[in-house]
Structure formats: C-alpha cells, structure tokens
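Weekly sync, protein design subgroup
Attendees: M.S., D.O., the rotation student, P.L. (late)

Item 1: inverse folding check
M.S. brought a backbone from last month's batch and wanted to see whether the design step gives back something sensible before we order anything. D.O. pointed out we never logged the input encoding, so this time it goes straight into the notes. Structure tokens as presented (202 positions):
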C-alpha cells in the first residue's frame, strides 16, 4: 500500500479574505491530488509574517507556526497571482523567510526542506506565468525542495483583459490537464522520496 501524504497549500493572494482566483485554482489542483493526500490551505495574507530571513522575527511573528506546518508536510504547494509580471509580494515574503533553512541543515548537510516536494500554481492576466514559476522554483530548489517534472500549472487571461479566473464558468481543458499532471507527478515523487530519502554528504 502506498504511503499516505500530507500537502500544505499556501495561498499567496494579496487579499486577507474573500474570493480570489488563486484560491479557486488551488482548490482545483488539490482536488486533482485526490482523497489519498490530506491537504491544508493557509491564506498567508491573513497572518502576520514579519520581514526578515530568520525563523523567528520576534513578538507577533506568525512565521514560526507556519514554518512548522511547512516542515511537517510532504508536499508544499504555493499558489500566487501575477502582479506586474512578478510573483506576489506575499509569496516573496514566504521565500525570504525560508532562506533561514540554509543555516538549519542537519549534521549531514540536509536542510529542513530535503525530501519534500514543491509545486506551483500561478494565476493572472496577460503573460508572466513562466517567469513567476521560474522565480519560485529556483528559490524552492535552493533551500532544498525537490521539483517534479512538468513545471507549474497556471492560467493567464487575455492581454489587456478584465476576466478573472474565479469568474470563468468552466475550467479550461488545458488547465484541468495541467492540474492533474502536477498532482500525479508530485505524488509520485513525494512517495519515492519518502521511501528513499536523500543521502547526506558530510
């Protein structure tokens, strides 16, 4: 029997609450993972995540609790909108705080992210999904996450358009196919790493 997996999805919309296209895409991707993967979704804008590159920036910082959830999960799924062709400032704050992982490696040189898989879901108008996912994947790989084959799942609207993903009456077939591919490849990789962790190098 395949080992059960846990997934933490970080909704990096700029909205602290309410409907968002990022939220809708994340829900679709999580559905594609199926019932064998236990998923938890956190809307990061609703937390007080202080700026900095340590694992605890003092009074009121809610990063330590979120960090614990990231480390406990087998899969990290980051969902972000595109603004000015960039990942949201919320997603960049998450990456900045994970910079501390580099100084928290174990005696074998493995960071807290080793053995964990990261996936990305991007949504927004006009182009930019490849650039945004490239920024996120590079940073995630730097701190120790493993990236599955196939890249991100994403949706981008028409240039100069005013249609949001959350307002679409039907999920486009290509987005649905990409969601399923990301889920399939991520689960496969996460199970392999859980069964056979990375070796140390020291």
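Designed sequence read out in the meeting:
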């Amino acid at each position: 029997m395949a080992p059960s997996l846990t997934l933490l999805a970080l909704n990096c919309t700029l909205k602290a609450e309410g409907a968002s296209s990022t939220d809708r895409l994340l829900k679709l991707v999580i559905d594609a993972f199926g019932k064998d993967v236990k998923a938890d979704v956190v809307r990061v804008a609703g937390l007080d995540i202080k700026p900095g590159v340590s694992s605890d920036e003092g009074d009121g910082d809610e990063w330590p609790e979120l960090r614990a959830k990231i480390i406990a999960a087998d899969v990290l799924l980051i969902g972000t909108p595109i603004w000015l062709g960039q990942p949201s400032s919320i997603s960049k704050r998450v990456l900045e705080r994970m910079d501390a992982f580099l100084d928290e490696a174990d005696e074998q040189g493995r960071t807290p992210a080793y053995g964990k898989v990261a996936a990305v879901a991007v949504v927004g108008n006009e182009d930019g999904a490849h650039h945004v996912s490239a920024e996120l994947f590079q940073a995630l790989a730097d701190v120790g996450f493993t990236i599955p084959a196939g890249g991100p799942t994403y949706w981008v609207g028409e240039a100069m358009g005013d249609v949001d993903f959350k307002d679409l009456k039907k999920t486009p077939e290509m987005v649905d196919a990409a969601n399923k591919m990301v889920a399939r490849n991520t689960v496969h990789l996460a199970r392999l790493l859980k069964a056979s962790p990375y070796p140390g190098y020291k």
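Discussion: Residues 173-195 form the longest helix (23 residues). Residues 5-195 form a domain with the Rossmann fold fold (CATH 3.40.50.360).
Action: P.L. to compare against the previous round before Friday.
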